[in-house]
Write a structure and sequence with these properties.
134 residues; Four Helix Bundle (Hemerythrin (Met), subunit A); elongated; mainly alpha
Length: 134
C-alpha cells in the first residue's frame, strides 16, 4: 500500500522531523513498489540496510526533540522505538541466516507500514502541541 504524507495527520511541528518522516515514507513506497513488481527479494537487503541505519539516525534525533520540548509522549516514543528496533533486528537476522524469502519481505513491509502510519499519527504528532506552545 502506498503511504501518502498527510500534513494535518502527520506533522510534528518540527520541519527536520517531518522531512525525515517523508524520507521514511518515500523509501517505504519504493520498497512497496519493488514488492508489488516481485522485486522484493532483490530490494530487501538494500531496504534493511537503509532502514537499520536511518532508524538510528532518526530515532536519536526525534528522542532528543521530545526531551528538549518535554513532550509527554517521550517514554511511549522511546518504548515504541525500542520495539521497532527489535523487530527490524529480528527481520535482519532472518535474512542473514536464511536469505530474503517472501516471508521476510512481507514481514518487513507489514512492520514498516504499520510503524509509519500508526507511530507517526499516534505518538510523533504529540510533539506538535508542545512545539507550538514553546
Amino acid at each position: 500500500m502506498t503511504i501518502k504524507w498527510v500534513y494535518k495527520k502527520m506533522t510534528t511541528g518540527l520541519s527536520e522531523i517531518d522531512e525525515q518522516h517523508k524520507e521514511w515514507i518515500r523509501r517505504f513506497n519504493e520498497f512497496d513498489n519493488a514488492v508489488i513488481n516481485r522485486k522484493g527479494q532483490d530490494a530487501i537487503q538494500s531496504a534493511i540496510s537503509f532502514f537499520a541505519q536511518y532508524t538510528e539516525t532518526h530515532f536519536a534525533r526525534e528522542e532528543a526533540c521530545m526531551t528538549q520540548y518535554h513532550c509527554p509522549a517521550q517514554a511511549a516514543n522511546r518504548a515504541a522505538h525500542d520495539e521497532f528496533r527489535a523487530k527490524l533486528s529480528e527481520i535482519k537476522g532472518w535474512v542473514e541466516q536464511e536469505g530474503a524469502t517472501m516471508v521476510e519481505v512481507m514481514a518487513l513491509e507489514q512492520a514498516l507500514e504499520e510503524w509509519l502510519v500508526n507511530h507517526i499519527c499516534a505518538i510523533d504528532v504529540q510533539l506538535r502541541d508542545v512545539v507550538a506552545s514553546s
